[in-house]
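re: the backbone from monday

yeah here it is again, tokenized this time
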């Protein structure tokens, strides 16, 4: 039976989505500001990257708590706390007098996103009519997907005309609007079902240390030849803590995340595909601006404008693809998106030595159209394979994977490019950059093919 779409529900989704949108917008806009910040605060490239790394790390650490938050706190209160944290982070960043304060503000914004993003999807899964879930998941995905498309252009315009502080100042009114919308439209329909459960402190500390170790390790991957210890030690810490977390969660009566749901094979395949396609998207978002500026000798503004149409296309496609899922099931739109991903990744690798502005805009448009058909739908489909009682845990895992891919994907692709450039025998810096970009694009072809195989398996009808 078809039910009408509740306007209040849509506004609640927009309120929670705006916070995630702003977090990612600042992240991608901030990349444009790195040279300016390095000069102003007298820090190097490895240090300035903590603007992004700290944000993603805090979001990844907070997200495992989303199932616990759901059981113990009303949704409106959670959102109110997240909005205040984000506002405080923006005020600190807009007025920061040193780099430590700047990173602290980003950490608060990451914590806020870690609360708000899972909250948005939990609201959809709990309150949306069954025949509208795909559409609303698409709207949620679209809100967050628009940000990477707008970020570089927004950052370039603001930095060139007003200065980097205005990136944070312009976001403050958006968060205030989100806060007002959330207070008005987020319903506490679960108020009666709240129960005080004990926080799995051992689980939380171990997964937090695991994420910290792995993210710091991958952030140091580019310097593995010069300083291997900075890569190896955090990696060992991350792996040990992850193994401890997995063992502990299977033993405890009140796990932080019910990881037993990973025994559902198709859910795990969908989750893994989601992770790989996120890495592909973020990898391209690192390769292409560098290629445009260092190989094609265009400005950062041009680099941002070239990826803007593709990013916008993918974002607009997300709710449409969700509607296709509601009507025809998940497999058809996902496999159409997979086909576009194959075509675009092969085109990028084939033309890697001669990527003109036209080719970049066209190939990236195909990539993002494919992503728009895949990401929201594979999440919706995978969560539908779980019992309703496990949706919060499944949602947590998807959001954790998104943030972890964000923290590691760019670092890995950056390291591949730098290592190939160091090994290249080319005499010109431009040719070294082309060699690094080509190697990274070939790696992404492999990532896409593995992801497509997992998509096929995840959406097959069970016999």
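seq for it, each position gets an aa:
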């Amino acid at each position: 039976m078809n039910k009408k779409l509740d306007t209040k529900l849509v506004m609640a989704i927009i309120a929670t989505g705006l916070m995630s949108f702003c977090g990612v917008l600042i992240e991608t806009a901030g990349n444009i500001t790195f040279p300016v910040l390095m000069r102003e605060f007298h820090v190097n490239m490895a240090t300035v990257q903590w603007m992004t790394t700290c944000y993603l790390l805090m979001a990844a650490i907070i997200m495992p708590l989303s199932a616990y938050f759901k059981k113990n706190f009303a949704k409106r209160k959670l959102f109110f706390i997240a909005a205040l944290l984000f506002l405080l982070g923006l005020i600190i960043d807009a007025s920061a007098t040193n780099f430590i304060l700047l990173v602290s503000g980003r950490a608060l914004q990451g914590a806020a996103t870690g609360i708000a993003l899972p909250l948005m999807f939990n609201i959809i899964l709990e309150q949306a009519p069954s025949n509208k879930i795909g559409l609303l998941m698409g709207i949620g995905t679209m809100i967050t997907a628009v940000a990477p498309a707008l970020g570089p252009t927004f950052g370039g315009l603001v930095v060139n005309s007003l200065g980097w502080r205005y990136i944070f100042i312009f976001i403050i009114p958006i968060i205030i609007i989100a806060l007002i919308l959330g207070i008005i439209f987020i319903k506490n329909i679960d108020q009666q079902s709240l129960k005080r459960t004990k926080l799995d402190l051992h689980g939380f500390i171990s997964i937090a240390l695991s994420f910290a170790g792995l993210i710091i390790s991958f952030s140091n991957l580019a310097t593995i030849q010069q300083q291997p210890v900075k890569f190896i030690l955090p990696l060992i810490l991350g792996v040990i803590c992850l193994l401890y977390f997995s063992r502990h969660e299977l033993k405890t009566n009140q796990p932080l995340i019910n990881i037993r749901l990973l025994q559902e094979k198709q859910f795990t395949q969908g989750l893994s595909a989601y992770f790989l396609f996120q890495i592909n998207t973020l990898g391209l978002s690192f390769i292409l601006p560098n290629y445009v500026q260092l190989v094609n000798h265009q400005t950062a503004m041009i680099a941002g404008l070239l990826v803007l149409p593709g990013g916008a296309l993918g974002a607009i496609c997300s709710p449409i693809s969700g509607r296709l899922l509601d009507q025809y099931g998940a497999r058809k739109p996902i496999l159409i998106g997979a086909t576009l991903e194959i075509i675009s990744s092969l085109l990028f690798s084939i033309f890697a030595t001669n990527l003109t502005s036209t080719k970049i805009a066209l190939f990236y448009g195909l990539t993002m159209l494919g992503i728009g058909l895949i990401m929201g739908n594979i999440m919706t489909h995978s969560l539908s394979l779980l019992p309703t009682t496990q949706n919060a845990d499944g949602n947590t895992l998807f959001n954790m994977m998104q943030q972890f891919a964000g923290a590691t994907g760019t670092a890995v692709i950056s390291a591949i490019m730098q290592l190939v450039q160091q090994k290249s025998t080319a005499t010109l810096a431009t040719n070294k950059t082309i060699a690094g970009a080509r190697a990274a694009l070939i790696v992404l072809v492999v990532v896409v093919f593995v992801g497509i195989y997992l998509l096929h398996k995840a959406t097959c009808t069970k016999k």
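The chain has a mean pLDDT of 85. The chain has three domains: 1-198, 200-255, 260-463.
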